[in-house]
Amino acid sequence: MATWSGYAIISLIPITFAASYFIPYGLISIPICLMIIFHQVILRGIFKGPKYRSAAFSDPEWDVISLDNNGFQVCGFVNWQQNEADMVVFVHGWQSSSEKYTERMRIFMDKNIHTLAIDMRGHGMASDTFEWTAGKVISDIKALLESLDDSRRNKIHFYGHSLGGFGCIGMHHHRHQGWWKERYGTLMLESPMVAYSPIMEEMVPSIPFMLPLLKKWAVRGFNRIHPEVRGLQWSDIDVPDWGLPDCPTLLLQAANDRRLGLFHYDLLLEQDIDLESHLIESLPHSGNRTNSDRDKLISDWIDNKIL
Predict the structure, then answer these.
(1) Which CATH number fits domain 63-196+238-306: 3.40.50.1010, 3.40.50.720, 1.10.10.10, 3.40.50.1820?
(2) Which is nearest to 232 in space by CA: 246, 216, 210, 211?
(3) pLDDT tens readout for residues 144-182
């Protein structure tokens, strides 16, 4: 863990004032205490989970999968077709849930493709997590994939929206391995986030002089939360160091993206990858359960790249 519990922070206050009273020059402890509290407030802001939850997915045509991943409950939803087929894995965005994917998953289901969706930590049916990172979500996706019946699926494809796209791209980093790497088909991204640094920089717009310190604290926190990775640097939270697709990739971008803008879209276009991109005027960043322009492009991609 990189952050302390709320109780640990609160306990600093009486200890500090006791020290300032009983210990010579104890008043020095007050600014130290305030600095520690400020440091923890910043870290809690960086690694906090979602503030709101969208409705949990519930549809009789999808079976619920629940499993334990190092003490955390992973929740997924799978629809198996009768025959052996490819599978598409859906990863939703921030403060969304698998339920928001219902209509898009049916596009694939109607073409006899297995569909699997996962609720990210703190979303939908999934449990809360004290420290939220995209790396933990990737760990949950991998655990869910390892639980699947190997005999019923051919290639596997991924569909990520917004932050979900960031997770899907990150899985292409060499540190992440599994059977799905050998059977990877295509990647579909809808208005994806492909860099974490702009999101982090939004936290200090009025105090830009704090950014170098924020970066230092954030990187130190990432490494403490993920000791298995070792040596993460600031550049590792952005494409291409975060990961880069090495498969045919479909990019469906909202032309008027009011949440992420076009920074992430432009950054992905700069990469040397097998990319088919579409800037869709009618597509919003969110509230996009159905969109005829996007859905037609998805259907064409299935016919040309998956079936």
Answers:
(1) 3.40.50.1820
(2) 216
(3) 999 998 888 899 999 999 999 999 999 999 999 999 999
CB atoms within 10 A of CB 246: 12
Report helix angle 163-170 to 134-146, nearest 10.
70
User: Count of residues for the chain?
Assistant: 307
The residue extents of the domains of the chain are 6-47, 63-196+238-306
DSSP H helix total and E strand total for the chain:
10, 8
pLDDT of residue 96: 97
Of 103, 62, 91, which is closest to residue 291 (Cα–Cα)?
Answer: 103
